[in-house]
Structures
1.
Amino acid sequence: MTARGQAQSALREPDQAQSALRERSTDVVVIGSGPGGYVAAIRLAQLGKKVVLVEKEALGGVCLNVGCIPSKALISASKLVEQIRHAQAIGIHVEGVRVDLKQMMTWKGGVVGKLTGGVGQLVKGNGGAVLRGAAAFVDPHTVDVTTADGSIERVTFAHAIIATGSVPTTIPGFAFDGTTVIGSTEALAFEAVPERLVVVGGGYIGMELGGVWQRLGSHVTVLEYADQILPGFELDLVRPALKRFKDAGGAVHVGTRALGFDRLGQGPGAEVRVHAETLATHARVSFDADVILVTVGRRPFTEGLNLAAAGLATDAKGFLAVDGAQRTSVPHLFAIGDVAGQPMLAHKASKEGEVAAEVIAGHAAAFDARAVPAVVFTDPEIATVGLSVKDAEAAGHKVKSGRFPFAANGRALSLNDTDGFVRVVVDADSGVLLGVEAVGPEVSNLIAEAGLALEMGALASELGGVIHAHPTLAEAVMEAANGALGHAIHAMNK
Ligand code: FAD
């Protein structure tokens, strides 16, 4: 190097060192921009806190990019296809329904894009900052954020919220390869409808996505280890969705352990044979498929965070334990969402985000929800909030319940969608509402009313006493509440 070159290089070095490690300080750093993290960041900014939201991938996390939103877009599109196919029952004859999958995926991408774009705008519009990169703790008050170009930004903070979410798990014999053995992310972005899809794991993600591809033309086989699909939901709630799935040609094998698979040809896209055994008899069974979708659960994600530097450790299952204020064992560090425990649901993550933000801002807040609703967007939908009859009895309640079928609801009839029912669970001694379970049309929306009633500690007579507009599906909630009290109008009371 010439003397001039050396001098220029010497002049540049301090600049480069500075650009390689930029620094900023903030009141709060939020790590992860899913429905937990971005909600926390917005709320913190609203409360006047200086906040930096760090995200290593796409803003919006799993839910907006590869979870709730794209799955629901494909669920509604595929249900529309199914409705059109069956429209002749109400005198509408449509010939040759053609699905342009590429266009459907573009539309789905547009839905996702609108929401993820909104996340950045809302954070910044409320005065927060977004920093793109992967955060790792350096000490309990510092993270280094490595950006896509490899540079590092050091952020010092008074409080941090860890909202790093979860990733899919798999089982032995089914390592993800992105084409033949896939997880939910790839199942939201097929370029062509797979002819035969084996779904390993009949939980809500497997049944929702299996349903999408079945309605779009795949032959779908679900293998489930437990003795029913959607374990955790009462069997009578599951039955209408199972029946529709089977009636449309889907196959379900419960009590079945998936063991592994063989490739029947060469290269990506080659046919496979999935091997399984029945738990009851240990009989070997096999299923040929083009794609294997593995949806056996999700695990909390903290890789690369260097939690030890912050004085934190996860529990045996990988979760960060928190108290009712979302505080971890290190009091200025909070955790929310999937990484902070079950249920791994977006609305639970968002509520925890609000709680953590408010606690950090000095407000008296706590996660004290009486019940977190759960919805499965099968066809028909399933939704629950609060206690089932079994749970309520196990908790020591003397229970009475009312069940109202959609077949007796005028709006369900006029929608030509009458499968399912609403069940209201009531404490027999006090008359207090304990839970609502439903399967049927639009129950994902109907469950909100039940959630409000539960949170307010309503009596079943109060839920049943509210005037519900006629004709609406929500009348089924009112009728089921009154049914528990022995006076549903449009059904026989036992
Ligand atoms: P996530 O959404 O997982 O976001 C975490 C974010 O943190 C990610 O973007 C990740 O890149 C980022 N991150 C991780 N580590 C770092 C780091 N070191 N530095 C910077 N960033 C980091 N839930 C529902 O309630 N309803 C549904 O209908 C529903 N449908 C679903 C469908 C599918 C197919 C899937 C997979 C999930 C679905 N879920 C649904 C679950 C829901 O997506 C999750 O419960 C929710 O996304 C959890 O939010 P979160 O904020 O905890 O984390």
2.
Amino acid sequence: MTKTIIVTGGAGFIGSNFIFYMIDKHPDYRFICLDKLTYAGNLSTLTPIMDKPNFRFVKADICDRTAVFNLFEEEKPDVVVNFAAESHVDRSIENPGVFLETNIMGTAVMMDACRKYGIERYHQVSTDEVYGDLPIDKPELLFTEMTPIHTSSPYSASKASADLLVLAYHRTFGVPITISRCSNNYGPYQFPEKLIPLMIANALNDKSLPVYGEGLNVRDWLYVDDHCKAIDLIIHNGRVGEVYNIGGHNEMRNIDIVKLICGALGKPESLITYVTDRKGHDMRYAIDPTKIHNELGWLPETNFADGIKLTIDWYVNNRPWWQEIISGDYQYYYERMYGNR
Ligand code: NAD
Ligand code: TDX
């Protein structure tokens, strides 16, 4: 049966990949992308689908109650997938306010709209960072859905707050929700402030590669399409009220990723510069995806060797996409963040 799906934050990294994946997989569905187009949103990313009859782009802020309610009234969505967020930990350390506004208050507005107009499913895209971090020397420890919330940064605290609010709206008002908590994503269209695209862009420009601390922090990397497939499964078959962890058992140290990028691009490792560590830097993330595997049959399909090659090739072949970004306001961000580090 056909559905109308509102995707918030669909002009960003994962949201745009999700829309591409879904519009291909469910050509009979209607998709509405609601995005404020912050520094992280890029309308040009959506050019290939902009003229499709089953796609509509709406520039709006999820905190704007009137705009969100009007859109619900007009479109009567069956499903909402909320990707819209401030997503970069370093920016949340510099300026927490907008994280609280968008990630918490914006989610509250989305929940109120679902409550008022009714919804078949509201899906909240959350993160493994809500669980805090794990020690490096206990590799057997993984985040499960039962791991207590224990946040480190204003970003993760805001995402955890949103999760709690979503669960509260389910329990108190019966809003049919699901939540997914995914590990670090990588792939095409990721804003070059995040580790992998930043290192690729800098290496291609023969700029120094700023590794925080000693580069020993571990992240559990997942190719973005695998995340999109998991969300598709959850919104169709996931149990209402449930949280699903998403991750592919692919733990890597930051320094090893940066060296791999140097090798793949034929750049010298002497570009690597160790810089002052991130405040409150989480040591290790690692997801236990048993629940989503057992209940929904999800397994990651892209291994890291293939995924990182696809990603590096994409950045090599799509220079205008990221060069335009790094020639604008991004320069001021880069100077503030890395200038005296
Ligand atoms: P992103 O920063 O690339 O994109 C965020 C998008 O949201 C942008 O298009 C931006 O314009 C939009 N947006 C921001 N504030 C808005 C507002 N107030 N109203 C409407 N739109 C707004 O982020 P991403 O990396 O694609 O992450 C998407 C979601 O997935 C986030 O909720 C994030 O917390 C979560 N997540 C990300 C990762 C990751 O590795 N990137 C991992 C797990 C979870
Ligand atoms: O210049 C850098 N140097 C560096 O050493 C940058 C940008 C990052 N790092 C380190 C910090 C982290 O240990 O690399 C690791 C990854 O950093 P990010 O790409 O900023 O990601 P992270 O902080 O792990 O958060 C990401 O994963 C969870 C996303 O940005 C979040 O939105 C998601 O929720």
3.
Amino acid sequence: MNSPRVGILMGSESDLPAMRLCGEVLDEYGIGWEIAVMSAHRAPEVVRSYASQAEARGLRVLVAGAGAAAHLPGVLASLTPLPVIGVPLAGTPLSGIDSLLSIVQMPPGVPVATVAVGEMGARNAGHLAARILALSDPAVAAALKARRQEMSGRVRLPEGFDVSGGGSVPA
Ligand code: RP5
């Protein structure tokens, strides 16, 4: 059984179309995940309970998406020692700038690793979680390496261009 190592949380069902993409990325690495909706302002007791049990339940990274005032990632980070990745989501008249600033501007001591707004950020949260897990999981590290090689294989250079003439693609 691939037990969940990443918890994907979001403040509302309306965040699901973006946040499910994080799960799709984790699937590519063979990383187990779970997903839940819990709002920091509508259900703070649930958030406290989930965060305080997360590490003991085997989770290693939390990914939290939220829009508007977007408290969820910061509140989770205050309640667990696990790394928290925050995904700012658009949906208000401020188009995600509100949630981006809210999530990224955590004061020192309680960090939230903040990714791009919306679907792009939700995907990158999955890739970042994989990089964190790869530090202690050789299978994820191998999947990550294969993916990086596949990405560098997509480069298209002009005919006759010698890439060894300056710089190289990191191993
Ligand atoms: C935030 O408010 C949620 O993360 C969501 O992005 C936004 C709007 O929530 P709903 O009104 O769609 O439930 O808490």
